[in-house]
Amino acid sequence: MDKPLHSRATFQPTLDSINPDYFGYFKAMANPSAATKKLGKYQPRLTYTQRPRGYKRAAYELAIELSLPKIAFGNNFDELTDADYNLVVRQLQETLREMGVWLFTKQIENAEVRALHYSKNFVFKDYTSCSAVLQMLRTADISKRYDVQNTNFRNGGYVLHVHTNSLDIAIYDKLADLRQSKTSEKRSQEKDNFVQLDLLDQLARQQPTAVMRYEVRLNGKRKTTDALAAVGFDKPLTFQNVFSAELSKALLQDHWQNFFSSLPKLALDTDEPDKLLANILQSADVKGPSQAAARLGMMLLLTKSEQRHIRSMFEDRFGKHAWSRLKPLTKPPHKVQYKTILGINQMLEQFEPTKMDQIKGHL
Predict the structure, then answer these.
(1) Which of 182, 226, 239, 180 has the alpha carbon at shortest distance from 44?
(2) What is the tens place of the pLDDT at every residue in 262-273?
(3) Which residues contact 59 (CB under 8 A, 6 or more apart)?
């Protein structure tokens, strides 16, 4: 690219510090300022690099790291579609101009992509626990599918992060991550959550809605090229070419199936305590944590002891009507954990974009 003469004011060190006759290596960065963050306005991270290219010659590069939904909507609960392409380009140009960088539309469209994070939000409206889903996914034996370098199940069980030689996969409770970033953004999965912290007040109410986010992160040109080629993509890695819901869906489905096919499906709805609790908590008629704990205790007790004996013990202590009062606790919950996983398969197949208005409608 040509030397970005209009971008002098935003970079550190400032580009004015470059001697016009200097053609050696130089690097400068422009990150969102504290004042910008305080206003809740999203800006990308910019890296300007000058590299020597022969005698009195240099190559100039501007790297832009950004979240496209945050540029377009100010949050990434809203998901992009192909129809949002012009909006994204326009918003990116306007934001860059505010930072002192002018780019033509063609420069953006033909920009080389060296890292790419495709993602999908799954919205649950039936008391599904993201933590329970992540625990199920943790049991998938994906070692035969990936050269796994590291698997983290952290932040209190709200994040499943798989690091391989070729890519990263992160699946996490989006609302929990947003709350975490309010305390410390360094420990959250997402950068720049400050632009959507105002949503916490709306999302914090007691309600049956949960949001789980699934990301496949491709870092580096070669790894990105190989990963996209595996799902049939053979075009140049340009911004315009990879802005594709179809390509995003293909990549996300491909790696999700690696998890799904490796799950011990028969073990997802057993009578183990955590599985029972997950099913109990997903029951709409549970009226509080005490009732959920009591129901779990009763179910575990009845799996180990004869019901007639347990009934007699309660009636001996509390009278003949005690069991009738406890009988609702003996009702086994519906086994819905595997059904939840199938529901995620269906959401990936339909690939309908989530919208904040849709999520707020269930609060």
Answers:
(1) 239
(2) 999 988 998 899
(3) 50, 51, 53
Separation between Cα atoms, residue 33 and residue 204, nearest integer Å:
28
Q: Are 177 and 159 in contact (CB under 8 A)?
A: yes
Most confident of 52-61, 169-178, 232-241, 278-287: 232-241
Pairing of strands 168-173, 58-65: unpaired
pLDDT > 70? residue 151: no
Distances, alpha carbon 36 to alpha carbons 9, 33, 41, 189, in Å: 15, 5, 6, 21
Mean pLDDT of the chain: 87
Query: By the 8 A CB rule, do 334 and 55 touch?
Result: no
CA neighbor of 169 nearest in space, from 251, 100, 229, 105:
251
Give the residue-averaged pLDDT of 218-233.
94
Residues 7, 21 contacting (CB under 8 angstroms): no
What pTM did the predictor assign? 0.88
